[in-house]
Amino acid sequence: MSTPPFLTLPASARGVRLETARGGFAALLGRPLSGPVRGTALLLPGFTGSKEDFIALLEPLAQAGFQTVAVDQRGQFETGGPDDEAAYGLEALAADLRALTEAVGDAGPLHLLGHSFGGFVVREALLRAAAEGGPLPWASATLLSTGPGAVCAEEAGRAELLVSVLPPVMELEQVWQAMRELEQSSGVEPVADPKVADFLHRRWLANVPASLRVTGRQLTVEPDRVDALARVELPKLVLSGEQDYAWPVPEQRRMAERLGARHVVVAGAGHSPNAEQPADTAAALSGFWSSIN
Questions:
Q1: What is the mean pLDDT of the chain?
Q2: Using N-to-C axis directions, what is the helix angle for 117-132 and 90-104, rounded to 10°?
């Protein structure tokens, strides 16, 4: 679960609702306050995440000339969704991404970024679009703290345990309290900012349980499809922190090599460089996107 460093939107950003052919999606829209827009980035959060995971990137990317659209995927926080597991499989989420792509419209080259599980959705969308033939609607793809397949065994065990106790076994509030107790017993420091701590609680309770069950399960069974993605002709970037509890960084580096992509390691960051070291992460992203424009 990513923890945003703050919740106040910069002057360059605002909350919006994107209406698409597949329904409405809550989003944060960041835009340069002056000068031309050099491109647009569509940012997808990971498991248990939300658009706020990218809040600290909005201002530095706007200053670099890029418009950003960070979304809550279906089932997450303020987007919501049905109590139907079929709505949250990778095929359905990739279709959502295509609909979001169409809704963003023409604002310069469109770059995709998927964080953690969001990277699986980006990959699924790319593979399906490539199979259809014709030009792709995206200029690049960034896999942020994402691996080639299922998460490591330890993290898979945690995900399986979480999925096993989700409603109807336990209510989301009960699961939240159990997670907090487990963190305290493990010596994890509580979130210092009470507003951020309250937000994390509210966000968790707003998740659609069916979404958590499907996406959490997918993290443990996703096959390695890197070779197929490598055949999709699109500039790619693999971005990670120095350490990662979900996919070891050497595994992410090998994935980048197989993709023929650059691997950038953000110093001082773990699984969420976007929240932990946003300035360096934004610099790496804007540099990559600028090299394509």
A1: 96
A2: 80
Task: Give pLDDT, residue 182.
Answer: 84
| Tens of pLDDT, residues 77-105 | 999 999 999 999 999 999 999 999 999 97
Q: Specify the CATH number for the domain of residue 118.
A: 3.40.50.1820
Structure tokens that stand for 236 in this block: 């790619």
Q: Cα–Cα distances in Å, from 21 out to 18, 93, 232, 270?
A: 10, 13, 26, 36
Entry pTM:
0.96
Burial of 179 (0-12, 13-18, 19+ CB in 10 A): middle
pLDDT of residue 106: 76
Is residue 144 within 8 A of residue 117, CB to CB? The reply is no
Q: Please report which helix (H) or strand (E) contains residue 122, including its range.
A: helix 117-132
Q: What is the pLDDT of residue 293?
A: 61
Q: Using an 8 Å Cβ cutoff, are 78 and 105 in contact?
A: no
Does residue 61 belong to any structural domain of this protein? Answer: yes
Q: Residue 87, Cβ neighbours under 10 Å: how many?
A: 18
Range of the domain at 43: 13-150+223-292
Query: Cα angle vertex 53, ends 137, 238, to 5°?
Result: 55
